[in-house]
């Protein structure tokens, strides 16, 4: 890869990138290109003035740097993260690794340490890692509780401005559903609207977990939908994140969207409990979600870490939802990072290559791979309303990730630490930030 990097550095503003393999599912404007058994097409890419000028069958280009059959992917899209709480693990670990332990630890750290400066330093560190890994767009959820919410959203607006042109940033609120009742709910929704955000919540109540829905769940859900309708906001919801079969909010969300004729996009994350429901209920829920046009986003690393965790007992299930059944019903399904080095997930680095590798193994997104590569790129881009992201197409920015790996087993067997990231056709010089940079932040709270 050093030789390729040197060749790219000397290639100028117009050149061919020769002999690359790309997932056909991530190519646009290239009808009739032959693909192999893994869905990979062998291509040459013409790059001019920072954009993709042409895609041609391999062997068409007369000269230019060669990938020697290695893979090229578009810049990836991380549609569900939590950069406001990222990297607090060293000062506030989860005592037992459970969901309840995570809630308590985050609440304690937020109350003691989450100043604007603290959040921004940790969030910026996280974005620098994502940028170096090749992420081009990212949506974060922001803990939105009064009186904390105004500071969190002010931090995000400043961060979004700072990162413009490098990573396209979006934000969604997150708070328990009951927080949106009364005047506080309207105030939260106004902050989201004024910030150009997405209205989000979690389908548990304050102090609770995702289990039996309370008797007043539906009036609270209708109130939440009304807040979004009045402000023209899209929705992004944390749903049924447990192994409790009483957690059945996903069905009610889909039914409510259909009954109200809700027109804005809806994305639902987690939906773990659905995989433990009776078949008839799961099938009905999936049918309603498909009819309502709900996008599903799955967080396989975090959910496998948290779900079915009981001290001294081996977990019995993977903690993830019914992705294959959803896809078969026509529902769009994405994968994303979720939490990084905080009480909800002790690991992670906002690396969507890692996410796709883990998702393939956990969710069996293989044999065949089909168009599952879209789940880390084009599909979340579509759910976020970013049609110019996540695909390799003529006219798009030449924001690409180059791999030495040729076939999918090579790509998914190593971390791809030697990848080359191109932004506007030039080699990105950004490096992963050193963990030590966070030491002053994590010891000053």
Layout of helices and strands:
Elements lengths: L1 H8 L4 E10 L16 E9 L2 E7 L14 E3 L1 E6 L17 H15 L2 H18 L1 E9 L5 H15 L4 E7 L7 H13 L4 E4 L14 H15 L3 E5 L9 H12 L5 E5 L8 H14 L2 E4 L1 H7 L16 H6 L4 E3 L16 H12 L14 H6 L16 E3 L5 H4 L8 E4 L2 E2 L11 H6 L1
Parallel strand pairs: 5-6, 6-7, 8-9, 9-10, 10-11, 11-12
Antiparallel strand pairs: 1-2, 2-3, 4-13, 13-14, 14-15
Pfam families: Amidohydro_3
GO molecular function, one term: cytosine deaminase activity
Enzyme class: hydrolase
Work out the helix count: 14
Identify the CATH class of the largest domain. Answer: Alpha Beta
Order of helices and strands: HEEEEEHHEHEHEHEHEHEHHEHHEHEEH
Class computed from helices, strands and strand pairing: alpha/beta
CATH architecture field of the largest domain: Alpha-Beta Barrel
Radius of gyration: 22 Å
Which stretches of 5+ consecutive residues score pLDDT under 50? none
Strand arrangement across the biggest beta sheet:
8-9-10-11-12
CATH fold-level assignment of the largest domain? TIM Barrel
Largest sheet: 5 strands, parallel
The proportion of strand residues reads 15-25%
Q: What proportion of the residues is helical, as a percent range?
A: 25-40%
Number of domains: 2
Mean pLDDT across all amino acids: 96
Shape designation: globular
Distance between the termini: 42 Å
Task: Tell me how many strands there are.
Answer: 15
* CATH level 4 superfamily of the largest domain: Metal-dependent hydrolases
């Amino acid at each position: 890869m050093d030789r390729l990097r040197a060749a790219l550095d000397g290639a100028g503003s117009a050149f061919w990138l020769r002999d690359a393999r790309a997932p056909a599912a991530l190519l646009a404007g290239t009808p009739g290109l032959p693909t192999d058994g893994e869905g990979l097409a062998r291509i040459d890419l013409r790059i001019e003035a920072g954009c993709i000028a042409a895609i041609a069958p391999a062997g068409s280009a007369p000269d230019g740097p060669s990938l020697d059959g290695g893979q090229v992917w578009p810049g990836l899209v991380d549609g569900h993260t939590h950069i406001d709480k990222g990297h607090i693990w060293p000062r506030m670990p989860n005592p037992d690794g459970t969901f309840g332990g995570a809630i308590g630890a985050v609440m304690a750290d937020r109350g003691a340490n989450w100043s604007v400066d603290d959040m921004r330093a940790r969030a910026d560190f996280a974005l620098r890692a994502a940028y170096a890994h090749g992420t081009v767009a990212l949506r974060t959820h922001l803990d939105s509780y009064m009186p904390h919410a105004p500071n969190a959203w002010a931090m995000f607006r400043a961060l979004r401005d700072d990162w413009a042109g490098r990573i396209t940033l979006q934000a969604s609120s997150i708070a328990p559903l009951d927080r949106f009742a009364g005047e506080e709910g309207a105030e939260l929704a106004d902050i989201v609207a004024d910030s150009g955000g997405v209205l989000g919540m979690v389908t548990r109540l304050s102090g609770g977990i995702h289990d039996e829905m309370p008797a007043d769940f539906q009036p609270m859900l209708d109130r939440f939908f009304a807040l979004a309708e009045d402000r023209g906001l899209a929705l992004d919801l944390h749903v049924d994140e447990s192994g409790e079969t009483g957690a059945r909010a996903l069905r009610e969300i889909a039914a409510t969207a259909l009954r109200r004729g809700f027109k804005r996009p809806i994305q639902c994350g987690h939906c773990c409990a659905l995989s433990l429901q009776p078949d008839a209920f799961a099938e009905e829920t999936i049918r309603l979600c498909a009819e309502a046009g709900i996008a599903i986003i799955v967080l396989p690393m975090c959910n496998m870490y948290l779900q079915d965790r009981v001290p001294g007992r081996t977990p019995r299930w993977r903690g993830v939802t019914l992705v294959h059944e959803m896809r078969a019903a026509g529902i769009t399904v994405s994968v994303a990072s979720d939490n990084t080095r905080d009480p909800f997930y002790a690991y992670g680095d906002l690396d969507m290559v890692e996410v796709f590798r883990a998702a393939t193994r956990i969710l069996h997104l293989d044999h065949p791979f089909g168009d599952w590569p879209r789940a880390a790129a084009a599909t979340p881009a579509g759910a976020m309303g970013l049609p110019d992201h996540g695909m390799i197409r003529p006219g798009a920015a030449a924001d690409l990730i180059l791999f030495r790996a040729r076939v999918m087993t090579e790509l998914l067997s190593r971390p791809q630490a030697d990848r080359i990231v191109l932004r506007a056709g030039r080699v990105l010089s950004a490096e992963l930030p050193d963990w030590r940079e966070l030491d002053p932040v994590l010891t000053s709270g």
